[in-house]
Amino acid sequence: MAMTHKQRILAAARGEHLDKLPFGARIDVWYNYHSAHGTLPEKYQGWSQTDIIRDQGAGAQYRFFSVVKEEYQDMEVVEKHDPPYITTEYRTPLGNVAKKEIFDTSEGPWIKYEMEKLFKSEQDYPIVKYVMEHTIPVDNFEAFYKLRDEVGEDGMVMTAAGGLWSPVQRVMREIIGYELFFYELADHPAEVEELMEVMKDLDRRKFEVAMKCDLEIFNICANWSDDIHTPVFRKYFVPWFQEVCDLLHAHGRLAMAHTDGEMRRLNLFFRETGIDIAEAITPAPQTLVSMKEFRRELGDEVTIWGGIPSILFEPMYSDEDFDAYIKNMFQEMAPGYRFIVGMGDNLPFDGDLNRVRRVVELIDRYGTLPIEV
Amino acid sequence: MVDLSLLSQAIDEGDREKTVQLTTEALGAGTNPQEIIIHGLQVGMAVVGEKFSDGEYFLPDMLMAARAMKAALEVLKPSLEKTGIPTIGKVVIGTVEGDMHDIGKNVVATFLSGNGFEVFDLGLNVTVQNFIDEVKEKKPEILGMSALLTTTMPVMGKVIKALEEIGMRSSVKVIVGGAPVTQDYANYIGADAYAHDGGKAIPVCRQLLGK
Question: What is the pTM of this model?
C-alpha cells in the first residue's frame, strides 16, 4: 500500500529512506489573501486549503498555535478589540503593563505584530516577570486534534508547545523588541537574563502539559535569521534547545525549527542544538546560502524541509526558470535523503499556485531516491 | 587636540560613554564640529558598515555603533545650529504598506544618518500615496523602500509606477531591500539599486549620488 503524504514526511523527518522525495506545501498566505478579496481561481471558489493542495497533488503543511494555551492567575487581563488592533493590559499588584497588536489576515500573513511592546522601560521588569510567573499553561489539544483530523493523512499540522518563539526569542522579539533588547542587554544584563530565566520556566511548564499530546514533531522556535546574533544565540539559545531536544527525544518526539531567514551564520551552530528538522529553509537567490551549502553545513543528521524560495513562485520567473531551479535543487541535495521539498516559507499572494503541481510533476520525473548526480 | 581616530574607534566598539566623552573633549579643545563628524564619527560608522557586510560584525554591533553616534550628535547639536549637520544627500525611507517590520529599515536609516545623509524616516506601513507626497515635499535624491514579506514587496513596484505616472521617476533614485528582495526583483520592478543589508546600503547610496 502506498504511503500517505503524512507518512512520507514523517519518515523523511526520522531519516528513513524513501523511494522518492516527499513534498509539504504551504499556501496559507496566498489562500488568506484570495479568500479575503474574493479572488480565488474559479475552480477553487469555496474550497478549503487542504482540498486545493490535495488537488495540486502535494502534501499539505498547516500551522497551528498551539497545543498549549495561556491562562492567568492573580492578575486582571483586559483585552480591547478595535479591529485590526488588539490592546491587552495586564493589571498586577506590582503595576500594569500593556501591549498593542495588529491582526489582520486579509493581506495574507496571519501572525500578530506588536505595534507596542509589553516592556517599555526598566521599571517594567518586575511587572513583566510577575505576568510570566502567574501565567498558567493549559492544554488546547481539542482544537489541534480537530484541525489534524481535517488534514488527515494529506499532510502535517505543525504546532508548538508555546507560541511562535523560544523563550529568549520571545523576550527579544515580543516582550522587549529587537533594538531595545540589545540596548537593555548592554545596559541591564542581569535584569534581561532574569527575565529570560522566568520565560524559560514558563516554557518548561508548557512542555509538561504539551508532552501529554501525541504530537510527533514540535516546532520549538520560529523565524530564525542571522539577526538573532550569533554570540547571543550561542550563549542563550543553544543551551535551551539542547534541554528541550533532550526532553523531546526522551519521549520519542522530534524537534523542528522554522528557519526561513538568512542563515549563513546560524547554520554553523544548528547541529549543536540537537534539533532534528530545519524547516522553511530559504536558499539563494532570496538569501546568500545555496542548498548545497545548507546540506553541507547542517550535516546528514538534520532533515531539511524547504528549498523553494517563495520569490520563485512570482511571475517574474518563467516556468522554464522555475523548472531549472527545481531540477538543480534536486541535484544539489543528492542523494536526497532527509530532505522534504517545501517552500521558504509560503506561496506569495501573487504567486502561481499551479507551480505546486509543477513541483509534484518534477518530483515524479526527477525526484526518485537516491538522486544520482 | 583630540585624536579623532580614537573617536572612530569608540564608534567601532559601540561604546556610547567613550564616544560622548571624546566628542565633548574634542569640542572643548576647539575642534570644528563638522571635522568631528566627518573625520571621527562617520569614519567609525563606515568601518562598522564594512565589517557588517564582510560578516565580521552583526546587526546588534551596528545598532550599538548607531546609538553611540546618536549620543555624540546630541552633544554636537548646539554647536551645529548655525551650520547644520553636513549632508551629502537627502533620503526618504520607509517600510511599505502592510508591512510591520522595521528593524532592517531602522538600521539603514540610522546608518545613512551616521554617514552624512539627511534622512526622513516615514516609519512602517507607509502607503504609496504617503511615499509620493513625501517625495514631492522633501525632494530627496534617494527614495529607500523596505519589505520583509513577499506579500508586501509588490508595493515597492507600485510606488515606482506611481512616480512614473506623475513624471517624477527621473528626479529620484530608488533603492530597495528587505529579506525576500533580490537584485533580480529590484531589476524587475525598475528600481535603481538594491542592497542586501544595512552595511551595503551606505556605499550603494553613495554610488547612486556619485559621491
Answer: 0.92
